[in-house]
Amino acid sequence: MTKVTMTVNGKTVSGEVEGRTLLSGFLREGLGLTGTHIGCDTSQCGACVVHVDGKAVKSCTMFALDAAGSTVKTIEGMANADGSLSVIQQSFQDHHGLQCGFCTPGMVMSSAALLAENPKPTEAEVRHYLEGNICRCTGYHNIVKAVLAASGQDVPAVAAE
User: Fold this and answer.
1) How far is CA 140 from CA 133, 137, 158, in A?
2) Would 15 disulfide with which of 30, 31, 47, 62, CB 3.0-4.6 Å?
């Protein structure tokens, strides 16, 4: 076992991990941050996306030890300081960008990374950026609307693919 220390959602945390412990497992089991979902364990679904040093990362592809000393933000850290939903979270709610909710944490985290890189993406750019996230319920249209709305853009009728 090795001690790992990182900053998660603004707080310094430490824990003992095996070398093979994935960041997703450390967050969920070691820290109790179960908003980071594990959907496939193979990097295919994107349900486990978190931000590591400001970059979107599928946490099932990174060892916890590799995140030592890093700043990690999970879905639990996305809310505003007063506890209200962030603009992106509120937009997902307002535009029905979720159904069962399983993909939602990863979609929100990926969307936040996209908007940090590209504050006014086109519909095509949103769709391209979110290709690494799988949603089995919504058909993506309302997720795209939510991201566009969160960017402050008018939300057009999103064309079906």
Assistant:
1) 10, 8, 10
2) 30
